[in-house]
Design goal:
This protein is an alpha+beta fold. The chain has six helices and seven strands. A hairpin with a 4-residue loop joins strand 5 and strand 6. The protein is globular. It starts with 11 loop residues before the first helix and ends with a strand.
């Protein structure tokens, strides 16, 4: 039986100092390995197989990193506490990457306000959807399904300005 060691909660001061670290290799954006919250790193939101395959530089700015941090605090950390480890399948997307994956021109992924989460089954997705709907503040909560590929994911977005629409769609087919 594996024992999982719980890590101590990081102080906000440490997180904000970490966010100000510049990328050492070129100075553009913030450190990709930066800790956003206790359980999430920036690299989880910027990593993309499509970006790697097409040679797209998907680095996040400090403003995008802050939006992602707010998404983590208000939506993803509570989901993680309730359901365990979450796998981010799509987070921040630069414009070029967003076009390459067929994202909309007004996608919340472009500003770091959205993430897509891997869902292992419809049952788990429904439970996560219900928990978020009943307990969390969010802008969008979409349990998305791609019938052609048989894939499903939970799209969540959060706007830190307090203007969250709470748009929720349980069966969103793409």
């Amino acid at each position: 039986m594996a024992v999982i060691q719980e890590l101590p909660m990081n102080e906000n001061l440490e997180l904000s100092q970490d966010m100000n670290r510049e990328r050492p290799e070129n100075g553009n954006g913030v450190d990709g390995d930066m800790l956003l919250t206790e359980h999430f790193r920036l690299s989880e939101f910027t990593r993309s197989g499509v970006a790697i395959r097409l040679g797209i530089d998907n680095k996040a700015s400090a403003a995008v990193a802050e939006n992602l941090r707010q998404l983590c605090i208000h939506v993803l950390e509570p989901l993680r506490r309730r359901f365990g480890v979450l796998r981010i399948t799509s987070g921040y997307r630069c414009k070029k990457l967003n076009r390459a994956v067929g994202g909309t021109a007004r996608s919340r992924h472009l500003t770091g306000n959205a993430a897509d989460l891997h869902i292992s089954s419809v049952e788990v997705g429904d439970k996560m959807f219900d928990f978020a709907l009943q307990n969390l503040d969010f802008d969008e909560l979409l349990f998305e399904h791609n019938k052609n590929r048989g894939t499903r994911w939970l799209h969540v977005s959060y706007m830190p300005n307090g203007r969250n629409r709470r748009r929720a769609v349980r069966r969103y087919f793409v």
